[in-house]
Amino acid sequence: MVARGEVPLQDAAGLLRVDSPARALAALAAEPFDGVVVERGLLEAFRGLDHLPVYAFERAEELPDLLETLRAQTLERYKTLLENGRDVVYVIDPEGTIRYVSPSVRRLGFRPPPPGVRINLLRFLQPEDQRQAREALEALAREPGQALTFRFRGRDAHGRDRVFRVWGKNLSHVPAVGGLVLQVRDVTREDALERRLQEESELLANLVATLPGVAWQARVAPTQDPLRAPTLYQSPRSTAVLGYDAEELARPGLYYDYVHPDDRADAVALARRALREPGVFHTARYRFLHGRKGTWIWLADTVRYDPATQLLSGYSEDVSEDVARSRALSESEARFRTLAETAPAVILMWQGDRLVFANQATRRLTGYDDEELRSRPVWEFVHPEDRDRVRHRGLERLRGRRPSERYAFRIVNKQGEVRWLDYSAARIEIRGEPAVLGVGLDVTEAKEKELDLELFARVAQALRRSEELETMMREGLEAVASFFHAPAGAIVLYGEEGSRTEAFSAIGWMRSLRPAPQLERQSLVAAVLRDGRPLVVEEIAADPRLREAVRPQVPHGWSGVYLPLPAGRRFVGALALTWPKPPPGEREIARLELAAETIGNAIQRASLRQVLARRVQNLESLRTLDQVIAHSLDLE
Fold it and tell me: Which letter, b or e, does each residue of 268-305 get, where b requires 16 or more Cβ atoms within 10 Å of its Cβ?
């Protein structure tokens, strides 16, 4: 109450009387009051109070009613707060008997005890907590005015387990209260969250403790130099990994004194870059002087800055062994590359379906540079007839199976030449993924000679199966066509005069072709016999030299090779082989010439034998006729 003079009041309990607004405002700042009563002439000084009711009076006779109104309103306010507040207020005696409970107890599913019914508050607590609660109440009751905070477990009216936080104060010395006041709050949910947070904190702490590196955090303002920021946390692995415990590195910036001078700028730039680019993980490697070992170790740092919390978080791991292995691997790769680049053999590595390494011998043999070799699937360099086989074996090896480790196949170089490789392969790993290391020797010349011999042996064996001319032609044609994978082909023989058709043998669609009785000047065979060398035809059906009589029987899209059949100094006929694809290359055509010469000589001998046999037969016939004539003359 603010009054400039004495105000006679019989009941002044709970009132603080001052004689000026300044003293009243000072008292309000020092401790809470329920309201202000002022002389009307001083009311203007309290216009700024918006959290307390202010009452004005003019005469002293108004004060009793005014104070009674203030008390009633204050009681109503406290009652409203008690009934609608989150907490439940109990007044109990030292033994725990409830003397008063606020109406908000209904939120826990309870009803206030009826008047005259004595209920002990301890009965609602868990049995294992009742002893501790009794001891807390005894401690609270020993000294009036004492305040304590404690937590107990109990059950609500529905029998559900709850957790309560209790703020207690001994107001037994206050006549209006005369007991222990307990402010009880249901903190079950908060308790569960706290326990969960505690469990997660312990889990995180255990997880960090098991990490091989050091986790750390520092609080850095966005404009602050990270070298001057104090470290908030450093995991226990610091001593083992860095050789220093957290206290030894506590001074801001000290950590960077142990970074190698050549790497210090990079390490400092890492932290500053994290502040410039928040929310992004930044990494760097540098050398650090180990505090216990006294040697330089390699550390890999990963840092990230969160501007919301102003925390610079990082993880430092000793990667000295990784760096040593990487250097050893680099040295090994350098030695391998030097060896591979100087080796005369083809050395390559491929992963998936692409080359990842090809040495100089590979580039020289194929005619492609590195970029060209890497830009296409590795199978595209293999000869079409060998491609499926090579792909199947390569993929089987990638899957961990063990196909033939050594075999031969053909490749086609940039100039279109076919080269033979004697190839060996093994499964390796590149960056943790399966790959194939292959080594090949160019055995083209030896393989070509081997194929020449094989072809000659096949054809010779086929020609020896029969002395009969037509059978010999068929056997020889089938042997050559099988060797060159030709689905169709033919052999045609001409008489000694070189124009009359003497014999014809064919396979595949060429069986439907009938040769002309005489060699026609406008024909593919005539062109071959006239020039005396192989004739390669890209599209037989479209060639203008093809006989018009047989053009309708020739399928489209077929290529062919026509060769003369030499026998000594003359040609006795022609050999034709056809394919539904491009014709063979120069080396295969040269091999075909060998086969044609072998067939031509053999057929010539067979033909001569056949002519000789016919002449012998004619002579025998004449001899028999002569004998018959002579015998008839003797009879006369």
Answer: bebbeebbeeeeeebebbbbbbbeeeeebbbbbbbbbb
